[in-house]
Write a structure and sequence with these properties.
The protein has 221 residues and is mainly α. It folds into 2 domains: 9-71, Homeodomain-like (Arc Repressor Mutant, subunit A, Orthogonal Bundle), CATH 1.10.10; 74-220, no CATH class. It is built from 11 helices and no strands. The protein is globular, with a radius of gyration of 19 Å. It starts with 10 loop residues before the first helix and ends with a helix.
Length: 221
Amino acid sequence: MSNAMSVETDPKTKLLKKLISTVMNDGFQQLKMDDIAKVMSVSRATLYKNFSSKEEVIAGVVHVFIDYIERLDERVSEEEEESFGIWYQQLFEQSIMLVGRITDVFLAELQSVYPALYDQLKDTLTKREQQILDFYRDGENKGVFNAINAKFLLVQDNLVLREIITTKYLVVNQMTIQQVLWDYYQLKKIQLFKANKLSIVDDAKIGPAIDHFVDKFNRAL
């Protein structure tokens, strides 16, 4: 899938991606520029060559996510049923990446310390939600999707995905991260697509996206 966060990007973005796990898990308020340089595995001079301040670093992290959200591919043709299957998979990939990466810890600190950046990120997330709602309604109107509460699906993604990709959930239920993501993908597909339209979704295409997330999840343990 073309919008994965692993795509090769400019040097600044590569440095910022090294910092994402740290600021998402532990926050950023206590970080000094020396700490940031250490996490990025660069010298202090190299860090300042790319970023003039900690605020610029955090702004960069925010824009990594904004750019990722806005890179979602356009549907090839809204008249072709296959486009609903392709977009469903791209949105699923994006959802697991965003839920797995953007934490409440980071959002709370961002809102407190850099409210303008928080508003930018929240506005982008809100636009994405509206885009998804429009997609669900379009699919329902064209007879591809079941009649279902689209807003409920958005809440479900946020709550269920956050729960099932935790180490605690996996250990208690003796499941792998790959298994729970695949099961949730199938569950949501059945919820969304009418039974006679399930065949337009090529499940083979979602495998690399799940494998990519699993690799990141396992390396973070």
